[in-house]
Amino acid sequence: MRIVILGSGAGGGVPQWNCGCPNCEAARAGRIPAMSQSGIAVSANGRDWALINASPDLRQQLAVTPALRPGGLRGSPIRSVLVTNGDIDHVAGLLTLREGQGFDLYATPAIHAVLSANPMLSALDPGIVVRREVALEQSVELAPGLAARLFAVPGKVPLYMEGERVETDLMGEQTVGVELEAAGRRVFYIPGCALVPDWLRERVAGADALLFDGTLWTDDEMIRAGLGIKSGRRMGHVPVSGPDGSLEALRDVTLGARIYVHLNNSNPLVDPASPERAQAAAAGWQVGHDGMEIAP
Ligand code: MLT
Ligand code: MN
Ligand code: ZN
Description:
Pathway: Cofactor biosynthesis; pyrroloquinoline quinone biosynthesis. Belongs to the PqqB family. It comes from Paracoccus methylovorus. This is Coenzyme PQQ synthesis protein B. By secondary structure, the chain is an alpha/beta fold. The protein has a single domain, classed as 4-Layer Sandwich (Metallo-beta-lactamase, Chain A). The strands form 2 sheets. The protein has a 7-stranded mixed β-sheet. Strands 7-8-9-10-11-12-13 form a 7-stranded mixed β-sheet. The longest helix has 8 residues. It binds D-malate, manganese (II) ion (MN) and zinc ion. The site of zinc ion has 6 residues, from α1. Zinc ion (ZN) binds next to α1.
Protein backbone atom coordinates (compact mmCIF):
# COMPACT_ATOMS: atom_id res chain seq x y z
CA MET A 1 0.00 0.00 0.00
CA ARG A 2 1.18 3.52 -0.78
CA ILE A 3 -0.23 6.54 1.01
CA VAL A 4 0.52 10.17 0.20
CA ILE A 5 -0.57 12.80 2.68
CA LEU A 6 -1.82 15.47 0.30
CA GLY A 7 -2.74 17.91 3.05
CA SER A 8 -1.78 17.64 6.70
CA GLY A 9 -3.65 20.71 7.97
CA ALA A 10 -7.16 21.12 9.36
CA GLY A 11 -9.80 23.46 7.93
CA GLY A 12 -8.15 26.79 7.12
CA GLY A 13 -4.69 25.27 6.73
CA VAL A 14 -1.41 26.80 7.88
CA PRO A 15 -1.23 29.72 7.34
CA GLN A 16 -4.95 30.42 7.50
CA TRP A 17 -5.93 33.42 5.36
CA ASN A 18 -7.17 35.57 8.24
CA CYS A 19 -4.86 34.42 11.03
CA GLY A 20 -1.84 36.21 12.41
CA CYS A 21 -1.02 33.72 15.16
CA PRO A 22 2.65 32.82 15.69
CA ASN A 23 2.38 29.56 13.71
CA CYS A 24 0.66 31.20 10.76
CA GLU A 25 3.20 34.01 10.75
CA ALA A 26 6.07 31.49 10.94
CA ALA A 27 4.61 29.59 8.00
CA ARG A 28 4.25 32.82 5.99
CA ALA A 29 7.88 33.63 6.72
CA GLY A 30 8.98 30.10 5.73
CA ARG A 31 10.30 29.29 9.19
CA ILE A 32 7.96 26.28 9.54
CA PRO A 33 6.34 24.21 6.78
CA ALA A 34 2.95 25.34 5.52
CA MET A 35 0.14 22.79 5.70
CA SER A 36 -2.61 22.54 3.14
CA GLN A 37 -6.03 21.19 4.06
CA SER A 38 -6.85 17.63 4.95
CA GLY A 39 -6.70 14.67 2.59
CA ILE A 40 -4.73 11.62 1.51
CA ALA A 41 -4.24 9.54 -1.64
CA VAL A 42 -3.97 5.75 -1.42
CA SER A 43 -2.99 3.04 -3.89
CA ALA A 44 -2.43 -0.70 -3.78
CA ASN A 45 -0.57 -0.94 -7.10
CA GLY A 46 0.97 2.51 -7.59
CA ARG A 47 -1.11 3.07 -10.75
CA ASP A 48 -4.71 3.36 -9.58
CA TRP A 49 -5.40 5.79 -6.78
CA ALA A 50 -8.20 6.68 -4.40
CA LEU A 51 -8.50 10.05 -2.75
CA ILE A 52 -9.82 10.14 0.76
CA ASN A 53 -11.26 13.58 1.35
CA ALA A 54 -11.17 16.37 -1.20
CA SER A 55 -9.94 19.58 0.35
CA PRO A 56 -10.29 23.09 -1.06
CA ASP A 57 -6.53 22.84 -1.78
CA LEU A 58 -6.92 19.77 -3.96
CA ARG A 59 -5.97 21.40 -7.25
CA GLN A 60 -2.55 22.39 -5.94
CA GLN A 61 -2.12 19.09 -4.08
CA LEU A 62 -2.64 17.16 -7.32
CA ALA A 63 -0.30 19.45 -9.22
CA VAL A 64 2.62 18.67 -6.90
CA THR A 65 1.99 14.92 -6.61
CA PRO A 66 3.60 13.13 -9.58
CA ALA A 67 1.66 9.87 -9.05
CA LEU A 68 -1.64 11.72 -9.53
CA ARG A 69 -0.86 13.45 -12.81
CA PRO A 70 -2.58 12.42 -16.05
CA GLY A 71 -0.74 9.72 -17.95
CA GLY A 72 -1.85 10.97 -21.37
CA LEU A 73 -3.64 13.77 -23.15
CA ARG A 74 -6.69 13.48 -20.88
CA GLY A 75 -7.31 11.20 -17.94
CA SER A 76 -6.38 10.65 -14.34
CA PRO A 77 -5.13 7.77 -12.22
CA ILE A 78 -7.78 8.75 -9.64
CA ARG A 79 -10.41 6.01 -9.66
CA SER A 80 -12.46 7.09 -6.68
CA VAL A 81 -12.96 9.68 -3.98
CA LEU A 82 -14.20 8.81 -0.51
CA VAL A 83 -15.24 11.48 1.97
CA THR A 84 -15.27 10.87 5.72
CA ASN A 85 -17.67 13.67 6.62
CA GLY A 86 -19.40 16.61 4.98
CA ASP A 87 -17.07 19.27 6.36
CA ILE A 88 -16.03 21.93 3.87
CA ASP A 89 -12.36 21.08 4.27
CA HIS A 90 -13.17 17.52 3.14
CA VAL A 91 -15.64 18.11 0.32
CA ALA A 92 -15.08 21.52 -1.29
CA GLY A 93 -12.31 20.01 -3.44
CA LEU A 94 -14.92 17.92 -5.24
CA LEU A 95 -15.64 21.05 -7.24
CA THR A 96 -12.05 20.90 -8.49
CA LEU A 97 -12.75 17.47 -10.02
CA ARG A 98 -15.47 18.68 -12.38
CA GLU A 99 -13.69 18.72 -15.74
CA GLY A 100 -15.44 15.81 -17.40
CA GLN A 101 -13.57 13.07 -15.60
CA GLY A 102 -15.29 9.92 -14.40
CA PHE A 103 -14.73 8.46 -10.95
CA ASP A 104 -16.70 6.84 -8.16
CA LEU A 105 -17.71 9.04 -5.24
CA TYR A 106 -18.07 7.06 -2.03
CA ALA A 107 -19.68 8.19 1.22
CA THR A 108 -22.25 7.02 3.72
CA PRO A 109 -25.91 7.61 2.81
CA ALA A 110 -26.09 10.47 5.34
CA ILE A 111 -23.09 12.25 3.84
CA HIS A 112 -24.39 11.66 0.31
CA ALA A 113 -27.66 13.28 1.40
CA VAL A 114 -25.73 16.40 2.46
CA LEU A 115 -23.83 16.45 -0.84
CA SER A 116 -27.01 15.90 -2.87
CA ALA A 117 -28.68 18.83 -1.13
CA ASN A 118 -26.01 21.10 -2.61
CA PRO A 119 -26.92 22.06 -6.19
CA MET A 120 -23.41 23.27 -6.97
CA LEU A 121 -22.08 19.73 -6.71
CA SER A 122 -24.27 18.69 -9.64
CA ALA A 123 -21.35 20.16 -11.61
CA LEU A 124 -19.97 16.64 -11.16
CA ASP A 125 -21.72 15.05 -14.16
CA PRO A 126 -23.86 12.21 -12.74
CA GLY A 127 -23.35 10.34 -16.01
CA ILE A 128 -19.68 9.79 -15.22
CA VAL A 129 -19.25 10.57 -11.52
CA VAL A 130 -21.09 7.73 -9.85
CA ARG A 131 -22.26 8.40 -6.31
CA ARG A 132 -21.98 5.17 -4.37
CA GLU A 133 -23.52 4.83 -0.93
CA VAL A 134 -21.48 2.80 1.53
CA ALA A 135 -23.06 1.36 4.63
CA LEU A 136 -21.07 1.33 7.85
CA GLU A 137 -18.92 -1.80 8.07
CA GLN A 138 -19.49 -2.64 4.40
CA SER A 139 -16.28 -3.36 2.49
CA VAL A 140 -15.81 -1.60 -0.84
CA GLU A 141 -13.00 -1.67 -3.41
CA LEU A 142 -11.81 1.92 -3.90
CA ALA A 143 -9.23 0.96 -6.51
CA PRO A 144 -7.85 -2.40 -7.69
CA GLY A 145 -6.63 -4.33 -4.67
CA LEU A 146 -7.56 -1.57 -2.22
CA ALA A 147 -10.42 -2.30 0.17
CA ALA A 148 -12.01 0.19 2.55
CA ARG A 149 -14.44 -0.25 5.38
CA LEU A 150 -16.14 2.74 7.02
CA PHE A 151 -17.01 2.78 10.68
CA ALA A 152 -18.67 5.36 12.89
CA VAL A 153 -16.45 7.38 15.21
CA PRO A 154 -17.64 9.93 17.76
CA GLY A 155 -18.26 13.19 15.92
CA LYS A 156 -20.83 15.73 14.86
CA VAL A 157 -22.66 17.02 11.82
CA PRO A 158 -20.82 19.55 9.59
CA LEU A 159 -20.53 23.06 11.00
CA TYR A 160 -22.89 24.44 8.33
CA MET A 161 -25.55 21.87 9.34
CA GLU A 162 -25.40 22.58 13.07
CA GLY A 163 -28.71 23.43 14.71
CA GLU A 164 -29.23 25.18 18.01
CA ARG A 165 -28.19 22.14 20.02
CA VAL A 166 -25.18 20.22 18.85
CA GLU A 167 -24.23 16.72 19.87
CA THR A 168 -20.47 16.50 19.56
CA ASP A 169 -20.04 12.77 20.11
CA LEU A 170 -22.72 11.38 17.83
CA MET A 171 -22.07 7.86 16.59
CA GLY A 172 -23.49 7.40 13.12
CA GLU A 173 -22.91 8.09 9.47
CA GLN A 174 -21.89 11.74 9.81
CA THR A 175 -18.27 11.21 10.79
CA VAL A 176 -16.46 8.02 9.92
CA GLY A 177 -13.07 6.42 10.20
CA VAL A 178 -11.66 4.33 7.35
CA GLU A 179 -10.03 0.92 7.65
CA LEU A 180 -7.90 0.34 4.56
CA GLU A 181 -6.59 -3.02 3.45
CA ALA A 182 -4.27 -3.98 0.62
CA ALA A 183 -2.07 -7.05 0.26
CA GLY A 184 -2.59 -8.00 3.87
CA ARG A 185 -1.62 -4.56 5.21
CA ARG A 186 -4.09 -2.72 7.39
CA VAL A 187 -4.18 1.04 7.89
CA PHE A 188 -6.61 3.33 9.69
CA TYR A 189 -7.36 6.89 8.61
CA ILE A 190 -9.35 8.88 11.17
CA PRO A 191 -8.97 12.64 10.58
CA GLY A 192 -11.84 13.64 12.86
CA CYS A 193 -12.74 11.98 16.15
CA ALA A 194 -14.21 13.44 19.33
CA LEU A 195 -13.15 10.71 21.79
CA VAL A 196 -10.96 7.62 21.95
CA PRO A 197 -13.19 4.95 23.51
CA ASP A 198 -11.89 1.50 24.41
CA TRP A 199 -13.50 -0.13 21.37
CA LEU A 200 -11.53 2.19 19.11
CA ARG A 201 -8.24 1.34 20.80
CA GLU A 202 -9.05 -2.32 20.33
CA ARG A 203 -10.07 -1.86 16.73
CA VAL A 204 -6.89 -0.14 15.61
CA ALA A 205 -4.57 -2.38 17.62
CA GLY A 206 -2.05 -4.21 15.48
CA ALA A 207 -2.55 -2.04 12.40
CA ASP A 208 0.41 -1.24 10.19
CA ALA A 209 -0.34 2.47 10.47
CA LEU A 210 -2.78 4.86 12.11
CA LEU A 211 -3.33 8.35 10.72
CA PHE A 212 -5.25 10.14 13.44
CA ASP A 213 -6.94 13.44 14.29
CA GLY A 214 -4.22 15.84 15.49
CA THR A 215 -6.33 19.00 15.29
CA LEU A 216 -5.50 20.47 18.69
CA TRP A 217 -2.82 19.91 21.30
CA THR A 218 -5.03 21.10 24.17
CA ASP A 219 -8.80 21.32 24.22
CA ASP A 220 -8.90 25.06 24.96
CA GLU A 221 -5.87 26.25 22.98
CA MET A 222 -7.88 28.36 20.53
CA ILE A 223 -9.71 30.09 23.36
CA ARG A 224 -6.54 30.76 25.34
CA ALA A 225 -4.73 32.09 22.27
CA GLY A 226 -7.59 34.48 21.55
CA LEU A 227 -8.27 32.79 18.20
CA GLY A 228 -11.82 31.64 18.81
CA ILE A 229 -14.49 30.74 21.29
CA LYS A 230 -14.68 27.00 20.70
CA SER A 231 -13.02 24.12 22.46
CA GLY A 232 -11.73 21.15 20.52
CA ARG A 233 -14.48 18.95 21.90
CA ARG A 234 -17.10 21.44 20.73
CA MET A 235 -15.58 21.09 17.27
CA GLY A 236 -15.68 17.31 17.48
CA HIS A 237 -11.95 16.80 17.96
CA VAL A 238 -10.27 15.03 20.87
CA PRO A 239 -7.11 16.88 21.92
CA VAL A 240 -3.70 15.24 21.59
CA SER A 241 -2.45 16.00 25.11
CA GLY A 242 -3.90 15.54 28.57
CA PRO A 243 -5.26 12.57 30.47
CA ASP A 244 -8.15 12.07 28.01
CA GLY A 245 -6.09 12.99 24.95
CA SER A 246 -5.21 10.68 22.08
CA LEU A 247 -1.53 10.47 22.98
CA GLU A 248 -2.37 8.90 26.34
CA ALA A 249 -5.32 6.83 25.08
CA LEU A 250 -3.25 5.23 22.32
CA ARG A 251 0.03 4.97 24.22
CA ASP A 252 -0.07 1.24 24.86
CA VAL A 253 -1.72 0.25 21.59
CA THR A 254 0.57 -1.68 19.25
CA LEU A 255 0.87 0.09 15.90
CA GLY A 256 3.35 -0.01 13.03
CA ALA A 257 3.32 3.75 12.56
CA ARG A 258 1.33 6.51 14.23
CA ILE A 259 0.93 9.81 12.45
CA TYR A 260 -1.06 12.91 13.36
CA VAL A 261 -2.96 14.55 10.52
CA HIS A 262 -5.56 17.36 10.27
CA LEU A 263 -3.52 19.78 12.41
CA ASN A 264 -5.00 23.15 13.23
CA ASN A 265 -2.74 26.19 12.95
CA SER A 266 -3.11 26.78 16.70
CA ASN A 267 -1.47 23.43 17.49
CA PRO A 268 2.13 23.72 18.73
CA LEU A 269 2.85 20.41 16.95
CA VAL A 270 2.94 22.24 13.60
CA ASP A 271 6.29 23.72 14.68
CA PRO A 272 8.94 21.01 14.20
CA ALA A 273 11.10 22.65 16.88
CA SER A 274 8.40 22.74 19.58
CA PRO A 275 8.75 20.80 22.85
CA GLU A 276 5.30 19.37 22.16
CA ARG A 277 6.62 17.82 18.92
CA ALA A 278 9.43 16.21 20.90
CA GLN A 279 6.94 14.93 23.46
CA ALA A 280 4.80 13.34 20.73
CA ALA A 281 7.88 11.86 19.07
CA ALA A 282 8.92 10.29 22.36
CA ALA A 283 5.57 8.47 22.34
CA GLY A 284 6.23 7.24 18.81
CA TRP A 285 4.15 9.79 16.90
CA GLN A 286 5.12 11.47 13.67
CA VAL A 287 3.41 14.62 12.49
CA GLY A 288 2.21 14.41 8.93
CA HIS A 289 3.44 16.93 6.41
CA ASP A 290 2.23 17.78 2.94
CA GLY A 291 3.66 15.33 0.42
CA MET A 292 4.68 12.80 3.06
CA GLU A 293 4.57 9.31 1.64
CA ILE A 294 4.42 6.06 3.54
CA ALA A 295 4.40 2.49 2.32
CA PRO A 296 2.91 0.55 5.21
C1 MLT B 1 -13.48 20.56 11.52
O1 MLT B 1 -12.71 19.66 11.22
O2 MLT B 1 -13.77 20.82 12.70
C2 MLT B 1 -14.12 21.34 10.42
O3 MLT B 1 -13.38 21.18 9.25
C3 MLT B 1 -14.34 22.75 10.78
C4 MLT B 1 -14.80 23.53 9.60
O4 MLT B 1 -15.73 23.10 8.89
O5 MLT B 1 -14.22 24.59 9.34
MN1 MN C 1 -11.78 19.56 9.37
ZN1 ZN D 1 -3.01 30.88 12.88
